[in-house]
Amino acid sequence: MNVQDHMWLDPAVLRPLTRTDVYALDLRGGEDRRSIRLRGEILELTGGRLASGVGDDGGVRPNVVLAAGGCGLADDDAFRMSRADGVLRIEGNTSLALLYGFYAYLRDLVLGRVVREGDGRTESPSHPMRMIDHWDQIDGTVERGYGGASIFFGIPGENDNGSYEHERPWNHADPFRNDLGRLTWYARLLASVGVNGIVLNNVNVRGGARRLIVEPYLDKVAELADLFDGFGIAVYLSVHFAAPISVGGLSSADPCDPDVRAWWMHTAKAIYERIPQFGGFLVKADSEGEPGPHEYGRTQADGANMLAEALRPYGGRVVWRAFVYDCHLDWRDRTRDRAVGAYETFQPLDGAFADNVCLQIKFGPVDFQTCEPANPLLHSLRATNIVVEFQIAAEYLGHQIDVNFAPAQWIDVMGQPVDGGSDGVPLSRSLRARALDPANVGYAGVANVGMGAHWTGGVFAQASLYGFGRMCWDAGLSAEHIADEWAALTFPGAGRNAQGKIAAILKSSNRTYRDYTAPLGVGWMFAREDHYGPSVCAFEYDRWGGVNRADRDGVGVDRTSTGSGLTEQYPSALRDLYADPARCPDELLLFFHWVPYGHVLHGGKTVVQHIYDTHFAGVERVREYVAAWDGLRGVIDGPRFENVAERLRMQLDNAVAWRDQINTFFHRMSGVPDERGREIYP
Ligand code: GCV
């Protein structure tokens, strides 16, 4: 089996802790695919054994009883864990709930948490939809993939590093990689943190991938759907909006054309006949050149609802992306800005989507940048199912080379009250109440894994995947808590002191990356194509509209009513906060405002001095990471130690490059010297 790294769920760690366990299953509803999987998991992961019933088994009483059915929990994924008479009882309505409870029990063991006699707890997921989106392509590459080749597609030995190219010719009959051992491990790892949906292929549905929704590929999709279903994970496919043309041979993809509607109905029927548990479709339409309903003068709701109608008889969902914006901007026009696109398109459609449509909205108004406010749509929609999209893959956050624990940023953004006031419900907990169907809301994360030895390129990037699952499951967890958990679960043998050092790196890493890259929310100063490393003006005079608007007097993007008007899309409390440079939070100042270099921040520094200071400080913090990690030599196993050490060296080079280019640029622009006289290159 091609798995060298078991991430946070290592059987070698679990077996000694569970050696004496005797597990019993009490299934009122009888066996199903998940209960059979649960039995398999007990045997695969623990050193214990399975009893034949809940009573004494050959004179040995089970010490862990997993009981499904009739426990009255409101959520079918929820479980209750309690201990009485020395027996740990894990109960839930379904066998899937038991699987979640079993993984939680294993996590508790490694973390040293004990459910005491007479004590107990109930866990119920915060979000019903907990999705992973793969941007994998059938040629084995992964768009914005930094963990190696696709785990789903490709030929072993070909393109193993998975580097992303737009469209490679595909000449093989079977595009699937068929590494079911690795996929079983992947499904296990995802289920262990509560993930329950997965999209196999890229939202940019290129070439042959458009045919994944029809035979002969459905057989292979069905095989994967069965595998993932055992772990409670529904398989979805990204579909090409123009598939009626490119796959079906019709002359149109107009959502109001009866032939087009009939084609989708027929296609959905064939999928569900083959894969009854199929999750549904993910769609990127009218976005970055992808086809969509706008081409036919129809709305986004027309397009999504047509697909929803086709999937409805089978309980399927349409996950429709809100990443619709103008990517042909004119940099000369300061009143236009990609950040306003999603709200302009989708806010008027609030209430117009079918109840099996989920609008998948990137968490910020731009595009997974280092520092963004919440997308205004997350505040404003009142009658739409929302799935919030995050990018676990670190496209803009250091390519999984630089340490960057992104859940710190995500949890922070989603912690904001929905009305922008001080006492409202946080965005993270507001989705169900604003949904047409509260079962159709949640979070989606763009995957960061591949065929590489450690799944995610850099070992530290595993923490963002773990953290994504944990924050989907429990919106109340802090980023610090998740970082501590990950360090303890991933390096259990390293001891508390080492785990503390590892967690400390994680906890400050998102801030550190921000410090040496994106000053005060300005962003977009990275290299043009691959988005790694500095290139201050790469997007400045560009159709994509990511800009810094720096000149000799100041810097920043005016997104207030005198600029692009993004501030006007927020609820009044936030609009007033963001629109006023005197009140705007420092970290978003240049995201919303152009200000002179001498503008004084809340902390008392000028903007330009802050830029110098954070860029020097960011590099110093990376040096501290290098030293801290070096101190763990001999404590961490060789392959993982070397993996991180190598990447930290690369990160240091990257941070130095950022510091010097950014500081030099702003020094040249402003002419303002560093008040501490540090070296800034002329
Ligand atoms: C899948 C960004 C990325 C693209 C990605 C797009 C999207 O622009 O650079 O690679 O395409 O987002 O989310 O659709």
Automatic annotation (TrEMBL):
SUPFAM superfamilies: (Trans)glycosidases. One of its GO terms (biological process) is xylan catabolic process. Pfam families: Glyco_hydro_67C (PF07477), Glyco_hydro_67M (PF07488). Residues 122-455 form the Glycosyl hydrolase family 67 catalytic domain. GO terms for molecular function: alpha-glucuronidase activity; xylan alpha-1,2-glucuronosidase activity. It comes from the Bacteria. GO terms for cellular component: extracellular region. Residues 456-678 form the Glycosyl hydrolase family 67 C-terminal domain. This is Alpha-glucuronidase. It comes from Bifidobacterium avesanii.
